[in-house]
Structure formats: structure tokens, C-alpha cells
Amino acid sequence: MDRWSRRRAAVQAEADAEARAREQAVITARQAELAEKTDAKILAELDLPDPETLQPGDDFSGFMQAAVPERIRKLALRKLWLSNPVLANVDNLVDYGEDFTKEGALGVAVKTAYQVGKGIINKVEEIAAPEDVADVVTEEPQALTEEIVEEEPETVLAEETPVETQTEQHDEPDFAVKRRMRFQFAS
Fold it and tell me: From CA 121, how far away is CA 112, in angstroms rounded?
């Protein structure tokens, strides 16, 4: 049963893909025709007003149709944004409201000591740098090793002391005594 369902779904997917391809071909042909015409002729054919003459409160929905070329749609949207003060005055609380595609808009690039895979490079260089060699320099390296050899302490073995173990002898038997609460009264 599963095999037939997959075959039907594959046939349906092919039919959908062909329909989308036909629609895309029609749209491409239509856009090629409209690219050759002026904006005034296109607006007259689609029975739309000039986007520059639109006022606040006018209907901009006609410019959102698929038949309208992208350049005319953008003109109408720009006029819409300018005509409505709510849309024109974007507050700074809008996430991603800035244009981050321009290099100059970001300002000075941030410099960091962090390197991928190495971490903060200043700390690594401090750890890897040898100590100040000028302070430790000696004229005779053999004298230094002789001093170290002479300072080696002798190994002294400790005396063995017997460990005292306490073994108490009890008169009581080895089995565990049941514990009970015992009360003593002063008499």
C-alpha cells in the first residue's frame, strides 16, 4: 500500500512542477513584454494611477498584483511609506531596522585579540614567553649544577616502632545485646 501512495505522490509532484513551470514561463514572457514598454503605457493597460500622484488614504493594493512590474511596485511602496507617518517614522526599537550591507554604516571595525582555535592570543604569548633570561644568567653553568648536587639531602630511614593494639577482654558474650531504653532515676 505504501508503494502505491508514493507513486501517486510522485505523479502529483510532477504535475505540480509542470504547472509551476508553465506559470513561470507566462510570467517571464509577460515581464519581457512589459520591460519594452514605458511606465505610462503599463499603468494605462493595468488601469492603475501614477504612483507619484497617490495621496494618503489612496488604495495601493492594485500595485501588489503579480502583473505589475517590480520597478512600478517599488515606486508605489516608496510613496506609501512616505504618505503614512506611522510607516515613515520607524522607531529605533525595530530589530534589524538598520542597513548592515554598507561597510561605512558599521563604523570602525572591532579589533580583538581573540583568534579562532587559539583563544585570546595575548595570554598565550605571555605563557609561552620564556622568563627574563638576564636575571638568571651565570658565568659558570657547572658551578650552578655542583651547588644543586651538594644540596641533595641524605635519605634517613625511620625506625620501626611497634604499633600498640588495644585488646580488651570482655566478660560479655560476643552476640549483640538487644538495645532497650533504660531509665535511671536518682534516688
Answer: 9
